[in-house]
Amino acid sequence: MKTLASTVGLVVALLALTVPVQAVTLEVQATQDTWIQSNAPGTAFGTNVNPSTQIRDASTVSRAALYGFNLPLMPAGHKVTKVDFRLITLGPDGPWFWNTDFAILADNPNLLTLTWNGAVAADYITGANGNGHVQWGSNANLTGDNWDDSAPASTPVVYTDATETDGLAKMINDLMSNSLNVPMTLMLGPTGPNSDFNIAAFYGSENGEALGEFEPHPRLYIYTEEIPEPATIALLALGGLLIARRRC
């Protein structure tokens, strides 16, 4: 029994010396953004004089928003555990409300010149249905996430995904590299169900106006944690086993 007790004590001591899992939060601001509009299919809105992004679905018009990011380097030995995507609603009108799906595009177009027609030609979308809901193409990788929210003007709104097996966090984890900054284009496509009423406008990446304590630019907050070493995992398992045996 003394031998077992000594072993348990040694394991507990080793566990106490185990380095805690390191967590890192990475903040990245959109470098470009725009929206595309079905009833102005040849117009590029990326150089709008009042920079904003808009989402809308109605029987007469569909608007989808796009955001370009350069993903930061993945800390060595880390994985993504959560992602926050933050926008600021654009005043003075509101409240804004929206219902949208997320997609990461297969490539990264120039958002300053992208039009609705260009998005169709690139097969990001195939068009919009009679309710203004975007119909996704083969070059839009759906995250499977649906964002249904509302907020008054000039308010931060955050979409959070902490699912490591699929969705936005998983896709960003798979894209990130520990040796180079990877570009990523995120598209928000309206999905209803509030035809003729579903609309939202947000501050864009070129808007330099400060809003109280926060900047209005679209942002990603990427939360990573260190992946435990196999030896650490084995030690934890051994410690649990020995302690269980000690109680028998």
Order of helices and strands: HEEEEEEHEEEEHEEEH
Fraction of residues in β-strands = 35-45%
Number of domains: 2
Number of strands: 13
- Give the N-terminus to C-terminus distance in angstroms: 11 Å
The helix content, as a percent range, equals 10-25%
- The class by helix and strand makeup works out as alpha+beta
> Biggest β-sheet, characterized?
7 strands, antiparallel
Any idea what the radius of gyration is? 23 Å
The averaged pLDDT comes out at 83
Poorly predicted spans: none
- Helical segment count: 4
**Morphology call:** globular
What is this entry, summarized?
This protein has 248 residues and is α+β, with helices and mostly antiparallel strands. Helices cover 20% and strands 40% of the residues.
Tell me what you see in this structure.
The chain is α+β, with helices and mostly antiparallel strands and 248 residues long. The protein is built from four helices and 13 strands. Strands 2, 3, 4, 6, 9, 11 and 12 form a seven-stranded antiparallel beta sheet that branches. A four-stranded antiparallel beta sheet has the order 1-13-5-10, covered by helices on one side. Strands 7-8 form a two-stranded antiparallel sheet. Helix 1 runs antiparallel to helix 4. The longest helix is centred in the last third of the chain and has 18 residues. The model has no long low-confidence stretch (mean pLDDT 83).
Architecture blueprint of SSEs:
Elements: H1 2-17, E1 23-29, E2 32-37, E3 52-57, E4 62-71, E5 78-88, E6 96-105, H2 116-121, E7 125-128, E8 134-136, E9 140-151, E10 156-161, H3 167-175, E11 182-190, E12 198-203, E13 219-226, H4 230-247
Antiparallel strand pairs: 1-13, 2-4, 3-4, 3-12, 4-11, 5-10, 5-13, 6-9, 6-11, 7-8
Helix pairs in contact: 1-4
